[in-house]
Amino acid sequence: MTHSLAKYHARSPRYILNTHDDCLVRVAGPQQIPWEEETEIKNVSLTGLAFTAPEDLCPVLGEVIKVQFVVPGAQQMACHAIVTRLEPERTHTILVAVHFYKLEMAHRIVLAQGLARKIKNEEGDFGSLTSEEMKTWNFFKKVFIMGFLATFWVVVMNLFMDGQILSVFDSVHAFLTK
To answer: Which of 48, 60, 89, 111 could tie 99 with a disulfide, CB 3.0–4.6 Å?
Structure first.
């Protein structure tokens, strides 16, 4: 069963972490010592983040916790967050969604710049196409260019064989010499 404190509101764009991103999050609740075993950040936005946590260490819905993580494309930051959603992810693993609580302006700027840089890099790599999709796209580009050149060659050869190519050249020459 999904538990949620958040009402529906427009969401900030999420950055889904890639394998090369540092995806560990360190969490500490009011009565807990910090832990990071088996945690993994799933996505980050300007307003919060989602991460997985072991069932036995999972925070409580509505609890204010301290999270420490590496901002994609930037440095590490720590802030307080409110647990807004808990969803079963896998066996003995819970997806925890948090909303940043009283995030300082300096942290907001670091987060916005880091996310903007990562999103720009992703879009610069032709959207979010996989390597297999890129291979297919490059193949179709080559096929299109070869088809265009073959069609052009056939048209020119037909004009040349029919003797019409000379009349085309004469028409172009007459037009240019006016």
So the answer is: 48
